[in-house]
Design a protein that fits this description.
Shape: globular
Number of strands: 5
Number of domains: 2
Radius of gyration: 21 Å
Low-confidence stretches: 24-29
Strand order of the largest sheet: 1-2-5-3-4
Helix content: 40-55%
InterPro entries: Prot-tyrosine_phosphatase-like, Tyr/Ser_Pase_IphP-type, Tyr_Pase_AS, Tyr_Pase_dom
Number of helices: 7
Largest sheet: 5 strands, mixed
CATH class of the largest domain: Alpha Beta
Structural class: alpha/beta
CATH superfamily of the largest domain: Protein tyrosine phosphatase superfamily
GO molecular function: phosphoprotein phosphatase activity
Order of helices and strands: HEEHEHEHEHHH
Distance between the termini: 55 Å
Mean pLDDT: 87
Pfam families: Y_phosphatase3
CATH topology of the largest domain: Protein-Tyrosine Phosphatase, Chain A
Protein name: Protein tyrosine/serine phosphatase
Organism: Bradyrhizobium erythrophlei
Length: about 190
């Protein structure tokens, strides 16, 4: 009977230890994602050329222009006339003399090679520095940043793939449209098969 009690107490301690570890992990990831939200998920991709963020407020846009010299905003959510966030972004960009470009991407559907080529073409033509954003700055913005790093800055596959990562709030899964898109475009981008 004592062996069963000891075994049960060891199992209980193990369960508490595992549960505590899971709780710490969940709180850590949740805290990190909260920090991303509070900071607008703003990051430099290529200093002086490309920056990424979540949906910026008018205050953010003015601050990013003053601090980083933003000359172009590429909105990856597409045209949304009548939406308060969109109308405010357009008005602030116009007031500050920032070029505004709409490029509609879906976080749930893969971007085609033609769509990727269109976006890369926009990156090459617009005045820099550029700010790209979607809603959270994690998925669509991650893929767009990866395409810039791969095709415009030519910093390599690893640097490009790092743009689509948990660091920016993206959870990589085989079913993720952004992960599948980049994987499908790797050969076209000049990267060897993995």
């Amino acid at each position: 009977m004592k062996a069963i009690v000891r075994s049960g107490s060891r199992a209980g301690r193990a369960a508490r230890t595992i549960g505590g570890g899971v709780l710490v992990l969940v709180l850590s990831v949740g805290g990190y994602l909260g920090v991303l939200h509070l900071t607008g998920n703003f990051h430099s991709v290529v200093a002086g050329a490309l920056y990424r963020s979540a949906q910026p407020t008018t205050f953010d846009i003015a601050r990013y222009q003053k601090t980083y010299g933003i000359k172009t905003i590429i909105n990856l959510r597409g045209e949304n006339r009548g939406s308060s966030w969109y109308d405010a972004e357009i008005a602030e960009a116009k007031q500050l003399g920032i070029i505004h470009v709409d490029f509609r991407m879906s976080a749930r559907r893969e971007l085609t090679q033609a769509g990727a080529a269109d976006l890369i073409g926009i990156f090459k033509r617009v005045e820099k520095p550029v700010l790209i954003h979607c809603k959270a700055g994690a998925d669509r913005t991650g893929l767009a940043a990866a395409l810039y790093v791969a095709a415009v800055a030519k910093l390599g596959e690893t640097a490009a793939e790092n743009q689509i990562s948990i660091r920016y709030g993206h959870i990589s899964l085989p079913v993720s449209a952004m992960d599948r898109t980049f994987e499908a475009l790797e050969r076209w981008l000049g990267f060897p098969d993995s």
